[in-house]
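hey so i finally got around to running the thing on that chain from the lab meeting. sorry it took forever, my laptop kept dying and i had to restart like 3 times. anyway pasting the input first so we r on the same page abt which one it is
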Amino acid sequence: MNKNKVNLSVIIKKIPVFLQLFLNSCLVILALILSFLLVKEIIVFFEILMTRGSSDYKLFLENILIFFLYFEFITMIVKYFKEDYHFPLRYFIYIGITAMIRLIIVEHDHPTDTLIYSLIILILIIGYFIINITPLERPIHLWFFNKKEKN
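ok and heres what got predicted. didnt touch it at all, straight out
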């Protein structure tokens, strides 16, 4: 019976290691796919510049913002590995702001939608500001963490 408990505990301890390895390998595959799409986007840039000239600036701006989205996702995956398997929240905010800016540039036909997208950007910037002023670790010496002393 003890031998079964030992084997089970070893298996249970191996599960997170296996899942972390699986997650890391999937992220590497995703980074490779995003890198391929990033290179493909650069080729599209040159095609737009060579064939259409500077007359189609909306398409060019849209492709630039798509390029930055790929770039930010790849950067976020790199940061994940550099920061000991942790996604920094600020990179998700960067991606959200870039995506909203892309929507404003591409779909600016309806003023109400543009206003809503602008408000979303404002909310994301306020969230980013709150993240930057918040300390990384919680201070231990706050009034609600102190235990009352018995006299």
